[in-house]
Design goal:
This protein has about 100 residues and is mainly α. It has a single domain (about 1-80), classed as Arc Repressor Mutant, subunit A (Orthogonal Bundle), CATH 1.10.10. The chain is built from five helices and two strands; from the N terminus they run H-H-H-E-E-H-H. It has helices at about 1-5, 15-20, 30-40, 55-75, 80-105; strands spanning about 45-50, 50-55. A two-stranded antiparallel sheet has the order 1-2. About 10% of the residues are buried.
């Protein structure tokens, strides 16, 4: 998700944190910070003028990961029409909202 988010361009750490919030566990802030530091050490991300962005290695890794995701998506949706896919996504979105509502109780 970090690579995907930053593929659109540099963002502040706060903006990135906000974008990733739905994907993180409630107690994951420290782990996210360690992960970001690790990505900087691996030369996937850079921090310049208070904004995080992708290095050339980060762009390459994002492209490779995107290719794998697209290949998996094509295989998983083989034989499924666009209408069927849209209906499945719609149902799953509603189920997710119901689960959030139940968890808030």
């Amino acid at each position: 998700m970090v690579l995907n988010t930053l593929s659109s361009g540099p963002v502040t750490p706060g903006e990135l944190k906000h974008t990733l919030r739905p994907f993180a566990a409630a107690d994951a802030e420290a782990a996210q910070e360690r992960d970001m530091a690790g990505m900087v050490r691996r030369d996937l991300l850079f921090l310049l003028d208070g904004r995080l962005g992708l290095t050339d290695a980060g762009v390459a890794l994002h492209a490779a990961a995107s290719g794998l995701v697209e290949a998996a998506r094509l295989e998983l949706t083989a034989g499924i029409g666009m209408d069927e896919y849209a209906m499945a996504v719609s149902v799953l979105e509603r189920m997710s909202k119901n689960a959030e509502r139940l968890a808030a109780r």
